[in-house]
Write a structure and sequence with these properties.
The complex is a heterodimer of chains A (about 350) and B (about 240).
Chain A: E1 3-5, E2 11-13, H1 15-46, H2 48-74, H3 82-97, H4 100-103, H5 117-139, H6 144-164, H7 166-169, H8 191-213, H9 216-226, H10 228-233, H11 238-264, H12 274-287, H13 292-308, H14 320-338
Antiparallel strand pairs in A: 1-2
Chain B: E1 3-14, E2 17-28, E3 32-36, H1 43-50, E4 58-63, E5 66-68, H2 76-79, E6 81-83, H3 96-104, H4 109-114, H5 119-131, H6 147-159, E7 165-169, H7 177-192, E8 196-200, H8 204-210, E9 213-218, E10 221-226, H9 228-232, H10 235-242
Parallel strand pairs in B: 3-8, 3-9, 6-7, 7-8
Antiparallel strand pairs in B: 1-2, 1-4, 4-5, 9-10
Helix pairs in contact in B: 3-5
Chain lengths: ~350, ~240
Protein backbone atom coordinates (compact mmCIF):
# COMPACT_ATOMS: atom_id res chain seq x y z
CA UNK A 1 0.00 0.00 0.00
CA UNK A 2 1.58 3.32 -0.95
CA UNK A 3 2.30 5.45 2.08
CA UNK A 4 3.95 8.70 2.96
CA UNK A 5 5.64 9.56 6.23
CA UNK A 6 4.89 12.79 8.03
CA UNK A 7 7.18 14.73 10.32
CA UNK A 8 6.59 12.74 13.49
CA UNK A 9 7.24 9.51 11.69
CA UNK A 10 3.62 8.41 11.39
CA UNK A 11 2.68 7.17 7.95
CA UNK A 12 -0.50 7.93 6.10
CA UNK A 13 -1.88 6.08 3.08
CA UNK A 14 -2.68 8.13 0.04
CA UNK A 15 -6.37 7.34 -0.74
CA UNK A 16 -6.06 7.83 -4.51
CA UNK A 17 -2.98 5.62 -4.74
CA UNK A 18 -4.64 3.05 -2.51
CA UNK A 19 -7.72 3.00 -4.76
CA UNK A 20 -5.60 2.71 -7.89
CA UNK A 21 -3.67 -0.19 -6.42
CA UNK A 22 -6.87 -1.99 -5.48
CA UNK A 23 -8.43 -1.45 -8.90
CA UNK A 24 -5.25 -2.62 -10.62
CA UNK A 25 -5.03 -5.74 -8.44
CA UNK A 26 -8.67 -6.63 -8.97
CA UNK A 27 -8.57 -6.04 -12.72
CA UNK A 28 -5.55 -8.30 -13.04
CA UNK A 29 -7.21 -11.04 -11.06
CA UNK A 30 -10.46 -10.60 -12.92
CA UNK A 31 -8.70 -10.81 -16.26
CA UNK A 32 -7.03 -14.04 -15.29
CA UNK A 33 -10.30 -15.55 -14.10
CA UNK A 34 -12.11 -14.50 -17.29
CA UNK A 35 -9.31 -15.98 -19.39
CA UNK A 36 -9.45 -19.18 -17.38
CA UNK A 37 -13.24 -19.38 -17.75
CA UNK A 38 -13.08 -18.82 -21.52
CA UNK A 39 -10.39 -21.45 -21.84
CA UNK A 40 -12.34 -23.90 -19.74
CA UNK A 41 -15.41 -23.37 -21.88
CA UNK A 42 -13.28 -23.94 -24.95
CA UNK A 43 -11.87 -27.15 -23.54
CA UNK A 44 -15.30 -28.39 -22.51
CA UNK A 45 -16.54 -27.98 -26.07
CA UNK A 46 -13.87 -30.36 -27.32
CA UNK A 47 -15.19 -33.43 -25.53
CA UNK A 48 -16.11 -34.57 -22.04
CA UNK A 49 -13.21 -37.05 -21.98
CA UNK A 50 -10.76 -34.32 -22.89
CA UNK A 51 -12.04 -32.07 -20.12
CA UNK A 52 -11.68 -34.91 -17.61
CA UNK A 53 -8.15 -35.51 -18.86
CA UNK A 54 -7.36 -31.83 -18.29
CA UNK A 55 -8.66 -32.03 -14.73
CA UNK A 56 -6.42 -35.02 -14.13
CA UNK A 57 -3.31 -33.26 -15.46
CA UNK A 58 -4.25 -30.11 -13.57
CA UNK A 59 -4.46 -32.03 -10.28
CA UNK A 60 -0.92 -33.38 -10.69
CA UNK A 61 0.59 -29.97 -11.49
CA UNK A 62 -1.43 -28.31 -8.75
CA UNK A 63 -0.20 -30.80 -6.11
CA UNK A 64 3.37 -30.22 -7.28
CA UNK A 65 2.97 -26.44 -7.33
CA UNK A 66 1.21 -26.13 -3.97
CA UNK A 67 3.79 -28.36 -2.27
CA UNK A 68 6.70 -26.55 -3.94
CA UNK A 69 5.25 -23.21 -2.87
CA UNK A 70 5.78 -24.30 0.74
CA UNK A 71 9.49 -24.22 -0.06
CA UNK A 72 9.82 -21.33 -2.48
CA UNK A 73 7.01 -19.01 -1.51
CA UNK A 74 6.82 -19.55 2.22
CA UNK A 75 10.36 -20.53 3.22
CA UNK A 76 12.33 -18.78 0.49
CA UNK A 77 14.06 -21.99 -0.64
CA UNK A 78 14.24 -21.92 -4.44
CA UNK A 79 14.37 -25.68 -4.92
CA UNK A 80 15.00 -27.36 -8.25
CA UNK A 81 14.99 -30.80 -6.64
CA UNK A 82 11.21 -31.32 -6.60
CA UNK A 83 11.27 -33.49 -9.72
CA UNK A 84 13.54 -35.93 -7.86
CA UNK A 85 10.91 -36.59 -5.19
CA UNK A 86 8.19 -36.64 -7.87
CA UNK A 87 10.22 -39.39 -9.57
CA UNK A 88 10.77 -41.36 -6.38
CA UNK A 89 7.02 -41.39 -5.70
CA UNK A 90 6.25 -42.47 -9.25
CA UNK A 91 8.90 -45.18 -9.39
CA UNK A 92 8.12 -46.50 -5.91
CA UNK A 93 4.49 -47.04 -6.83
CA UNK A 94 5.47 -48.41 -10.24
CA UNK A 95 7.94 -50.93 -8.85
CA UNK A 96 5.74 -51.95 -5.94
CA UNK A 97 2.57 -52.41 -7.97
CA UNK A 98 3.65 -53.51 -11.46
CA UNK A 99 1.78 -56.49 -12.80
CA UNK A 100 3.82 -59.74 -12.65
CA UNK A 101 2.11 -61.21 -15.72
CA UNK A 102 3.27 -58.33 -17.87
CA UNK A 103 6.74 -58.01 -16.33
CA UNK A 104 7.52 -61.70 -16.92
CA UNK A 105 7.43 -60.90 -20.64
CA UNK A 106 9.99 -58.14 -20.26
CA UNK A 107 13.62 -58.54 -21.24
CA UNK A 108 14.90 -56.50 -18.32
CA UNK A 109 13.11 -57.88 -15.30
CA UNK A 110 12.84 -56.25 -11.91
CA UNK A 111 11.67 -57.68 -8.57
CA UNK A 112 7.92 -58.25 -8.55
CA UNK A 113 6.05 -57.19 -5.44
CA UNK A 114 2.57 -56.52 -6.86
CA UNK A 115 1.15 -54.48 -4.00
CA UNK A 116 -2.12 -52.63 -4.44
CA UNK A 117 -1.88 -48.89 -5.17
CA UNK A 118 -3.05 -47.77 -1.75
CA UNK A 119 -0.42 -49.93 -0.02
CA UNK A 120 2.36 -48.72 -2.32
CA UNK A 121 1.42 -45.04 -2.05
CA UNK A 122 2.41 -44.50 1.63
CA UNK A 123 5.61 -46.51 1.07
CA UNK A 124 6.50 -44.29 -1.89
CA UNK A 125 5.80 -41.14 0.11
CA UNK A 126 7.83 -42.47 3.02
CA UNK A 127 10.77 -43.35 0.76
CA UNK A 128 10.69 -39.86 -0.76
CA UNK A 129 10.52 -38.42 2.76
CA UNK A 130 13.54 -40.47 3.86
CA UNK A 131 15.50 -39.44 0.78
CA UNK A 132 14.51 -35.83 1.43
CA UNK A 133 15.66 -36.15 5.03
CA UNK A 134 19.02 -37.46 3.88
CA UNK A 135 19.51 -34.81 1.20
CA UNK A 136 17.94 -32.07 3.29
CA UNK A 137 20.25 -32.58 6.24
CA UNK A 138 23.01 -31.40 3.91
CA UNK A 139 20.97 -28.92 1.91
CA UNK A 140 19.48 -27.11 4.90
CA UNK A 141 22.95 -25.79 5.70
CA UNK A 142 23.01 -23.83 2.46
CA UNK A 143 21.27 -20.61 1.55
CA UNK A 144 20.45 -18.54 -1.50
CA UNK A 145 22.42 -19.24 -4.70
CA UNK A 146 24.35 -22.16 -3.25
CA UNK A 147 21.11 -23.83 -2.18
CA UNK A 148 19.70 -23.49 -5.71
CA UNK A 149 22.83 -24.97 -7.27
CA UNK A 150 22.93 -27.92 -4.87
CA UNK A 151 19.21 -28.56 -5.42
CA UNK A 152 19.91 -28.75 -9.17
CA UNK A 153 22.35 -31.53 -8.48
CA UNK A 154 19.70 -33.48 -6.53
CA UNK A 155 17.39 -33.40 -9.56
CA UNK A 156 20.20 -34.47 -11.88
CA UNK A 157 21.35 -37.28 -9.59
CA UNK A 158 17.79 -38.57 -9.16
CA UNK A 159 17.27 -38.68 -12.93
CA UNK A 160 20.56 -40.49 -13.47
CA UNK A 161 19.69 -43.07 -10.83
CA UNK A 162 16.36 -43.72 -12.59
CA UNK A 163 18.16 -44.18 -15.91
CA UNK A 164 21.06 -46.29 -14.69
CA UNK A 165 19.78 -48.42 -11.79
CA UNK A 166 18.30 -50.85 -14.27
CA UNK A 167 17.88 -53.80 -11.92
CA UNK A 168 15.30 -51.76 -10.03
CA UNK A 169 13.96 -49.18 -12.49
CA UNK A 170 14.42 -51.00 -15.82
CA UNK A 171 16.27 -47.85 -16.92
CA UNK A 172 15.16 -46.34 -20.24
CA UNK A 173 12.70 -49.22 -20.85
CA UNK A 174 10.45 -47.87 -18.14
CA UNK A 175 7.88 -49.80 -16.13
CA UNK A 176 4.52 -50.91 -17.52
CA UNK A 177 1.32 -52.24 -16.03
CA UNK A 178 1.24 -50.02 -12.95
CA UNK A 179 -1.75 -50.59 -10.70
CA UNK A 180 -4.64 -48.15 -10.46
CA UNK A 181 -6.29 -47.20 -7.17
CA UNK A 182 -8.54 -50.04 -6.07
CA UNK A 183 -10.43 -50.22 -2.80
CA UNK A 184 -11.97 -53.62 -3.51
CA UNK A 185 -15.53 -52.34 -3.63
CA UNK A 186 -14.55 -49.43 -5.90
CA UNK A 187 -11.74 -49.11 -8.44
CA UNK A 188 -10.53 -45.99 -10.22
CA UNK A 189 -10.10 -47.78 -13.51
CA UNK A 190 -11.82 -45.17 -15.64
CA UNK A 191 -10.74 -41.60 -16.38
CA UNK A 192 -13.57 -40.02 -14.43
CA UNK A 193 -12.90 -42.20 -11.39
CA UNK A 194 -9.20 -41.43 -11.52
CA UNK A 195 -9.89 -37.70 -11.82
CA UNK A 196 -12.08 -37.96 -8.72
CA UNK A 197 -9.28 -39.70 -6.80
CA UNK A 198 -6.83 -37.01 -7.96
CA UNK A 199 -9.19 -34.21 -6.97
CA UNK A 200 -9.57 -35.76 -3.51
CA UNK A 201 -5.80 -35.95 -3.10
CA UNK A 202 -5.42 -32.37 -4.36
CA UNK A 203 -8.00 -31.20 -1.82
CA UNK A 204 -6.12 -33.07 0.91
CA UNK A 205 -2.80 -31.53 -0.09
CA UNK A 206 -4.33 -28.05 -0.16
CA UNK A 207 -5.88 -28.63 3.25
CA UNK A 208 -2.63 -29.91 4.77
CA UNK A 209 -0.70 -26.99 3.25
CA UNK A 210 -3.27 -24.56 4.62
CA UNK A 211 -2.94 -26.16 8.07
CA UNK A 212 0.82 -25.77 7.84
CA UNK A 213 0.95 -22.16 6.66
CA UNK A 214 -1.73 -21.01 9.08
CA UNK A 215 0.05 -22.59 12.06
CA UNK A 216 2.83 -21.05 14.12
CA UNK A 217 5.19 -23.27 12.12
CA UNK A 218 4.08 -21.50 8.92
CA UNK A 219 4.75 -18.12 10.46
CA UNK A 220 8.27 -19.22 11.40
CA UNK A 221 8.83 -20.39 7.81
CA UNK A 222 7.93 -16.92 6.54
CA UNK A 223 10.26 -15.35 9.09
CA UNK A 224 13.05 -17.65 7.87
CA UNK A 225 12.34 -16.48 4.33
CA UNK A 226 12.53 -12.86 5.45
CA UNK A 227 15.60 -13.03 7.68
CA UNK A 228 17.02 -16.35 8.78
CA UNK A 229 19.62 -14.88 11.13
CA UNK A 230 17.10 -12.66 12.86
CA UNK A 231 14.60 -15.43 13.57
CA UNK A 232 17.36 -17.66 14.93
CA UNK A 233 18.28 -14.98 17.47
CA UNK A 234 14.82 -15.50 18.94
CA UNK A 235 15.42 -19.17 19.62
CA UNK A 236 14.29 -20.92 16.44
CA UNK A 237 16.65 -23.47 14.93
CA UNK A 238 16.06 -22.57 11.29
CA UNK A 239 17.75 -25.68 9.88
CA UNK A 240 15.20 -27.92 11.63
CA UNK A 241 12.25 -25.92 10.35
CA UNK A 242 13.67 -25.94 6.83
CA UNK A 243 14.32 -29.66 7.03
CA UNK A 244 10.78 -30.37 8.23
CA UNK A 245 9.08 -28.40 5.46
CA UNK A 246 11.48 -29.88 2.92
CA UNK A 247 10.47 -33.42 3.90
CA UNK A 248 6.74 -32.60 3.95
CA UNK A 249 6.97 -30.98 0.53
CA UNK A 250 8.93 -33.94 -0.87
CA UNK A 251 6.30 -36.39 0.36
CA UNK A 252 3.59 -34.37 -1.40
CA UNK A 253 5.63 -34.38 -4.62
CA UNK A 254 5.92 -38.15 -4.25
CA UNK A 255 2.12 -38.34 -4.00
CA UNK A 256 1.86 -36.48 -7.32
CA UNK A 257 4.40 -38.92 -8.79
CA UNK A 258 2.39 -41.89 -7.59
CA UNK A 259 -0.73 -40.48 -9.24
CA UNK A 260 1.09 -39.90 -12.53
CA UNK A 261 2.48 -43.43 -12.56
CA UNK A 262 -0.88 -44.96 -11.80
CA UNK A 263 -2.71 -42.72 -14.26
CA UNK A 264 -0.42 -43.46 -17.17
CA UNK A 265 0.25 -47.07 -16.08
CA UNK A 266 3.67 -46.60 -17.65
CA UNK A 267 6.63 -44.45 -16.66
CA UNK A 268 10.16 -43.95 -17.86
CA UNK A 269 12.91 -41.56 -16.72
CA UNK A 270 12.04 -38.99 -19.41
CA UNK A 271 9.11 -37.83 -17.32
CA UNK A 272 11.48 -36.80 -14.51
CA UNK A 273 14.01 -34.54 -16.15
CA UNK A 274 15.24 -31.21 -14.83
CA UNK A 275 12.95 -29.29 -17.20
CA UNK A 276 9.97 -30.58 -15.19
CA UNK A 277 11.40 -28.94 -12.06
CA UNK A 278 11.89 -25.69 -13.94
CA UNK A 279 8.25 -25.83 -15.09
CA UNK A 280 7.12 -26.43 -11.50
CA UNK A 281 9.09 -23.42 -10.28
CA UNK A 282 7.69 -21.34 -13.14
CA UNK A 283 4.11 -22.29 -12.20
CA UNK A 284 4.71 -21.36 -8.57
CA UNK A 285 6.22 -18.00 -9.49
CA UNK A 286 3.52 -17.26 -12.07
CA UNK A 287 0.66 -18.13 -9.71
CA UNK A 288 2.13 -16.24 -6.81
CA UNK A 289 4.71 -16.88 -4.15
CA UNK A 290 3.36 -17.47 -0.68
CA UNK A 291 -0.15 -18.15 -1.94
CA UNK A 292 -1.79 -21.58 -2.11
CA UNK A 293 -4.55 -20.17 -4.30
CA UNK A 294 -1.86 -18.73 -6.56
CA UNK A 295 -0.28 -22.12 -7.10
CA UNK A 296 -3.64 -23.68 -7.97
CA UNK A 297 -4.33 -20.84 -10.41
CA UNK A 298 -0.82 -21.12 -11.85
CA UNK A 299 -1.30 -24.84 -12.47
CA UNK A 300 -4.67 -24.17 -14.09
CA UNK A 301 -3.25 -21.60 -16.49
CA UNK A 302 -0.26 -23.78 -17.27
CA UNK A 303 -2.42 -26.78 -18.16
CA UNK A 304 -4.83 -24.68 -20.22
CA UNK A 305 -1.92 -23.15 -22.08
CA UNK A 306 -0.22 -26.50 -22.50
CA UNK A 307 -3.25 -28.30 -23.85
CA UNK A 308 -5.13 -25.37 -25.38
CA UNK A 309 -2.32 -24.53 -27.77
CA UNK A 310 -2.95 -27.81 -29.56
CA UNK A 311 -6.10 -26.23 -30.99
CA UNK A 312 -4.63 -22.94 -32.18
CA UNK A 313 -4.91 -23.34 -35.96
CA UNK A 314 -1.81 -21.47 -37.13
CA UNK A 315 0.60 -23.45 -34.95
CA UNK A 316 1.70 -26.62 -36.75
CA UNK A 317 1.31 -29.73 -34.58
CA UNK A 318 5.04 -30.40 -34.55
CA UNK A 319 5.78 -27.01 -33.00
CA UNK A 320 3.16 -26.93 -30.26
CA UNK A 321 5.61 -27.98 -27.55
CA UNK A 322 8.19 -25.35 -28.44
CA UNK A 323 5.55 -22.62 -28.89
CA UNK A 324 4.15 -23.49 -25.48
CA UNK A 325 7.56 -23.00 -23.89
CA UNK A 326 8.11 -19.70 -25.70
CA UNK A 327 4.72 -18.34 -24.64
CA UNK A 328 5.25 -19.52 -21.11
CA UNK A 329 8.67 -17.88 -21.03
CA UNK A 330 7.27 -14.60 -22.37
CA UNK A 331 4.47 -14.71 -19.82
CA UNK A 332 6.94 -15.19 -16.99
CA UNK A 333 9.16 -12.37 -18.24
CA UNK A 334 6.17 -10.02 -18.44
CA UNK A 335 5.11 -11.05 -14.95
CA UNK A 336 8.55 -10.44 -13.49
CA UNK A 337 8.55 -7.00 -15.11
CA UNK A 338 5.08 -5.88 -14.14
CA UNK A 339 4.02 -8.10 -11.26
CA UNK A 340 7.00 -9.72 -9.56
CA UNK A 341 4.87 -11.23 -6.81
CA UNK A 342 3.03 -13.37 -9.39
CA UNK A 343 -0.65 -13.25 -10.28
CA UNK A 344 -2.05 -13.41 -6.77
CA UNK A 345 1.09 -13.73 -4.67
CA UNK A 346 2.16 -11.55 -1.81
CA UNK A 347 5.88 -12.11 -1.71
CA UNK A 348 8.32 -10.69 -4.25
CA UNK A 349 11.32 -12.77 -5.24
CA UNK B 1 30.43 -5.43 40.79
CA UNK B 2 28.90 -8.73 39.74
CA UNK B 3 29.08 -9.39 36.03
CA UNK B 4 26.47 -11.11 33.86
CA UNK B 5 28.64 -11.33 30.73
CA UNK B 6 32.42 -11.60 30.49
CA UNK B 7 34.70 -11.97 27.52
CA UNK B 8 38.21 -13.28 28.02
CA UNK B 9 40.73 -12.45 25.29
CA UNK B 10 38.11 -12.72 22.56
CA UNK B 11 39.46 -12.11 19.08
CA UNK B 12 37.45 -11.63 15.91
CA UNK B 13 39.20 -11.10 12.60
CA UNK B 14 37.83 -9.85 9.31
CA UNK B 15 40.63 -10.75 6.90
CA UNK B 16 43.67 -8.88 8.20
CA UNK B 17 41.71 -6.61 10.52
CA UNK B 18 41.17 -7.50 14.16
CA UNK B 19 37.65 -6.25 14.83
CA UNK B 20 38.04 -7.49 18.40
CA UNK B 21 41.60 -7.79 19.60
CA UNK B 22 41.97 -10.06 22.65
CA UNK B 23 39.03 -8.27 24.21
CA UNK B 24 38.56 -8.82 27.92
CA UNK B 25 35.57 -7.05 29.37
CA UNK B 26 32.91 -7.53 32.04
CA UNK B 27 29.37 -6.29 31.71
CA UNK B 28 27.70 -5.67 35.09
CA UNK B 29 24.60 -7.62 36.03
CA UNK B 30 22.63 -4.72 37.38
CA UNK B 31 21.73 -1.38 35.86
CA UNK B 32 22.30 0.01 32.44
CA UNK B 33 25.62 -0.22 30.64
CA UNK B 34 26.51 1.75 27.55
CA UNK B 35 29.14 0.76 25.04
CA UNK B 36 30.58 3.68 23.13
CA UNK B 37 33.47 4.25 20.78
CA UNK B 38 34.29 5.57 17.34
CA UNK B 39 33.02 3.83 14.21
CA UNK B 40 34.85 0.56 13.64
CA UNK B 41 35.88 0.21 17.28
CA UNK B 42 34.15 -3.18 17.58
CA UNK B 43 30.93 -2.32 19.46
CA UNK B 44 28.53 -4.03 17.07
CA UNK B 45 30.96 -6.89 16.53
CA UNK B 46 30.89 -7.51 20.28
CA UNK B 47 27.06 -7.57 20.27
CA UNK B 48 27.10 -9.88 17.24
CA UNK B 49 29.48 -12.26 18.96
CA UNK B 50 27.55 -12.31 22.22
CA UNK B 51 24.36 -13.14 20.31
CA UNK B 52 25.99 -15.77 18.08
CA UNK B 53 25.52 -13.89 14.82
CA UNK B 54 29.29 -13.91 14.32
CA UNK B 55 31.67 -16.67 15.38
CA UNK B 56 34.90 -15.72 17.16
CA UNK B 57 38.32 -17.18 16.55
CA UNK B 58 39.91 -17.05 19.98
CA UNK B 59 38.94 -16.53 23.59
CA UNK B 60 36.05 -17.37 25.84
CA UNK B 61 32.67 -15.84 26.53
CA UNK B 62 30.98 -16.32 29.88
CA UNK B 63 27.24 -15.62 30.02
CA UNK B 64 25.61 -16.01 33.43
CA UNK B 65 28.40 -18.37 34.50
CA UNK B 66 28.10 -20.58 31.41
CA UNK B 67 31.30 -20.80 29.37
CA UNK B 68 31.19 -20.62 25.58
CA UNK B 69 33.79 -21.05 22.88
CA UNK B 70 31.00 -21.22 20.30
CA UNK B 71 27.67 -19.40 20.61
CA UNK B 72 24.78 -20.47 18.38
CA UNK B 73 22.18 -17.79 17.62
CA UNK B 74 19.19 -19.99 18.46
CA UNK B 75 20.59 -20.51 21.95
CA UNK B 76 20.12 -16.83 22.87
CA UNK B 77 16.86 -17.28 24.82
CA UNK B 78 18.28 -20.22 26.75
CA UNK B 79 21.40 -18.13 27.44
CA UNK B 80 19.02 -15.52 28.83
CA UNK B 81 19.64 -12.75 26.35
CA UNK B 82 18.12 -11.05 23.34
CA UNK B 83 19.11 -8.20 21.07
CA UNK B 84 18.15 -5.58 18.52
CA UNK B 85 20.16 -4.85 15.39
CA UNK B 86 22.05 -1.74 14.32
CA UNK B 87 20.17 -1.76 11.00
CA UNK B 88 16.57 -2.61 11.89
CA UNK B 89 15.90 -6.21 10.89
CA UNK B 90 12.18 -6.80 10.95
CA UNK B 91 10.52 -9.52 8.90
CA UNK B 92 9.72 -7.07 6.14
CA UNK B 93 6.90 -8.82 4.30
CA UNK B 94 5.07 -9.76 7.48
CA UNK B 95 2.62 -7.51 9.29
CA UNK B 96 3.65 -5.74 12.48
CA UNK B 97 1.38 -8.13 14.41
CA UNK B 98 2.98 -11.20 12.80
CA UNK B 99 6.43 -9.83 13.59
CA UNK B 100 5.52 -10.09 17.26
CA UNK B 101 3.41 -13.25 17.10
CA UNK B 102 6.25 -15.15 15.46
CA UNK B 103 8.55 -14.71 18.45
CA UNK B 104 5.79 -15.60 20.92
CA UNK B 105 5.18 -19.05 19.49
CA UNK B 106 6.57 -22.46 20.35
CA UNK B 107 10.21 -23.13 19.44
CA UNK B 108 9.88 -26.83 18.60
CA UNK B 109 8.98 -27.93 15.07
CA UNK B 110 6.18 -30.30 16.09
CA UNK B 111 4.77 -28.06 18.80
CA UNK B 112 4.66 -25.12 16.41
CA UNK B 113 2.95 -27.26 13.76
CA UNK B 114 0.16 -27.95 16.20
CA UNK B 115 -0.07 -24.41 17.53
CA UNK B 116 -2.44 -21.86 16.06
CA UNK B 117 -2.86 -18.21 16.95
CA UNK B 118 -5.25 -18.06 19.88
CA UNK B 119 -6.69 -15.19 21.85
CA UNK B 120 -3.96 -15.49 24.49
CA UNK B 121 -1.15 -15.08 21.94
CA UNK B 122 -3.04 -12.32 20.15
CA UNK B 123 -3.64 -10.52 23.43
CA UNK B 124 0.01 -10.73 24.40
CA UNK B 125 1.10 -9.42 20.99
CA UNK B 126 -1.39 -6.57 21.27
CA UNK B 127 -0.06 -5.68 24.70
CA UNK B 128 3.51 -5.55 23.36
CA UNK B 129 2.67 -3.44 20.31
CA UNK B 130 0.59 -1.20 22.54
CA UNK B 131 3.55 -0.80 24.88
CA UNK B 132 5.47 0.92 22.07
CA UNK B 133 2.37 2.86 21.04
CA UNK B 134 1.82 1.66 17.47
CA UNK B 135 -1.09 -0.76 17.71
CA UNK B 136 -2.84 1.30 15.02
CA UNK B 137 -0.17 -0.05 12.64
CA UNK B 138 -0.51 -3.73 13.58
CA UNK B 139 -1.95 -4.67 10.18
CA UNK B 140 0.70 -2.83 8.16
CA UNK B 141 3.57 -4.67 6.59
CA UNK B 142 6.83 -4.00 8.42
CA UNK B 143 8.26 -2.60 5.18
CA UNK B 144 5.51 0.03 5.16
CA UNK B 145 6.34 1.37 8.63
CA UNK B 146 8.30 4.58 9.11
CA UNK B 147 11.88 4.36 10.38
CA UNK B 148 10.88 5.30 13.91
CA UNK B 149 8.01 2.83 13.96
CA UNK B 150 10.37 0.13 12.76
CA UNK B 151 12.74 0.88 15.63
CA UNK B 152 9.83 0.68 18.07
CA UNK B 153 8.67 -2.60 16.54
CA UNK B 154 12.11 -4.07 16.97
CA UNK B 155 12.05 -3.07 20.63
CA UNK B 156 8.56 -4.55 21.04
CA UNK B 157 9.89 -7.77 19.56
CA UNK B 158 12.68 -8.08 22.12
CA UNK B 159 10.26 -7.19 24.92
CA UNK B 160 8.39 -10.37 23.96
CA UNK B 161 11.36 -12.41 25.10
CA UNK B 162 11.42 -13.78 28.62
CA UNK B 163 15.10 -13.05 29.26
CA UNK B 164 17.22 -11.07 31.70
CA UNK B 165 19.78 -9.45 29.39
CA UNK B 166 18.81 -7.03 26.64
CA UNK B 167 21.40 -5.89 24.11
CA UNK B 168 20.40 -2.82 22.10
CA UNK B 169 22.58 -1.88 19.14
CA UNK B 170 22.13 1.85 18.57
CA UNK B 171 18.49 2.03 19.64
CA UNK B 172 18.40 5.84 19.49
CA UNK B 173 20.00 6.38 16.10
CA UNK B 174 17.92 8.43 13.67
CA UNK B 175 14.92 8.96 15.96
CA UNK B 176 12.82 12.10 16.33
CA UNK B 177 12.94 13.59 19.87
CA UNK B 178 9.48 12.25 20.73
CA UNK B 179 10.33 8.70 19.75
CA UNK B 180 13.73 9.02 21.35
CA UNK B 181 12.00 9.73 24.64
CA UNK B 182 9.72 6.73 24.16
CA UNK B 183 12.69 4.43 23.60
CA UNK B 184 14.48 5.87 26.64
CA UNK B 185 11.43 5.16 28.79
CA UNK B 186 11.24 1.58 27.51
CA UNK B 187 14.88 0.97 28.44
CA UNK B 188 14.41 2.56 31.85
CA UNK B 189 11.34 0.37 32.45
CA UNK B 190 13.40 -2.73 31.67
CA UNK B 191 16.11 -1.64 34.09
CA UNK B 192 13.49 -1.01 36.78
CA UNK B 193 12.18 -4.53 36.24
CA UNK B 194 15.64 -5.77 37.22
CA UNK B 195 16.84 -6.64 33.74
CA UNK B 196 20.36 -6.00 32.51
CA UNK B 197 20.28 -3.37 29.77
CA UNK B 198 23.32 -2.95 27.55
CA UNK B 199 23.21 -0.46 24.71
CA UNK B 200 25.50 0.88 22.03
CA UNK B 201 25.11 4.57 21.28
CA UNK B 202 26.85 7.58 19.77
CA UNK B 203 24.51 10.01 21.54
CA UNK B 204 26.57 11.20 24.49
CA UNK B 205 23.70 13.10 26.10
CA UNK B 206 21.67 9.92 26.35
CA UNK B 207 24.71 7.92 27.43
CA UNK B 208 25.26 10.40 30.27
CA UNK B 209 21.60 10.37 31.19
CA UNK B 210 20.97 6.62 31.21
CA UNK B 211 24.20 4.79 31.93
CA UNK B 212 25.19 3.41 35.29
CA UNK B 213 28.37 2.08 33.76
CA UNK B 214 30.21 2.85 30.54
CA UNK B 215 32.64 0.92 28.37
CA UNK B 216 34.66 2.83 25.80
CA UNK B 217 36.05 0.74 22.96
CA UNK B 218 38.69 1.61 20.43
CA UNK B 219 40.31 -0.61 17.79
CA UNK B 220 38.72 -3.77 19.16
CA UNK B 221 39.83 -3.27 22.76
CA UNK B 222 38.55 -1.57 25.88
CA UNK B 223 39.98 1.90 26.16
CA UNK B 224 38.30 2.76 29.45
CA UNK B 225 35.40 1.71 31.64
CA UNK B 226 33.69 2.77 34.82
CA UNK B 227 31.64 5.73 35.98
CA UNK B 228 30.22 7.70 33.06
CA UNK B 229 31.37 11.21 33.94
CA UNK B 230 34.82 10.10 34.96
CA UNK B 231 35.37 7.99 31.87
CA UNK B 232 34.03 10.50 29.37
CA UNK B 233 36.38 13.15 30.74
CA UNK B 234 39.50 11.03 30.37
CA UNK B 235 41.88 12.63 27.85
CA UNK B 236 42.46 9.33 25.98
CA UNK B 237 38.69 8.88 25.55
CA UNK B 238 38.25 12.41 24.25
CA UNK B 239 41.19 11.86 21.93
CA UNK B 240 39.84 8.55 20.57
CA UNK B 241 36.38 9.95 20.06
CA UNK B 242 37.29 13.30 18.58
CA UNK B 243 40.48 12.15 16.88
CA UNK B 244 42.48 14.90 18.50
Amino acid sequence: MPQTANADGKSTASPSKHLKARVRNNIELLLILVLAAISLAFMATQSFGFAVRLIQIFCIWAILAVSLNLLIGYTGLLSMAHVGFFGIGAYSVAILTTNPAYQSLSTDTIPIIALPFFAALPIGMLLAGLFALLVGSVLSRFRDDIFVLVSFSVAIIAHNVLVNWRSVTRGPFGIHAIARPDLGFWAADGRVEFAIVSLIFLALVIYVCWLIVSSSFGRVLIAIREDEDAIQVFGYKATLFKLAVWVISAMMAALAGALVASDQTFIDPNSFILLESIMMVAIVIMGGLGSIRGSVLGAMIFVLLQEGLRFVPFIPQGYVGQTRMIIFGLLLTALMLFRPQGLIGRYKL
Amino acid sequence: MKSIIKTETVTKRFDAVNALDHLTVSLPKSGMTSIVGPNGSGKSTLINILSGILPFEEGLVVIDEQHFRVILPHENPSNGLTRTFQEVRLFEQMTALDNILVVLTKRGVFQSLLERTNSELHGKAKELIDSVGIWHKHDSLASDLSYGQRKLMEIARVLAMDVKVFLFDEPFAGLFPKMLDEVKQLLIALKEKGCTVIFVSHNMDIVRELSDHIIVMDAGSVLAEGDVEEVLNLPEVISAYLGT
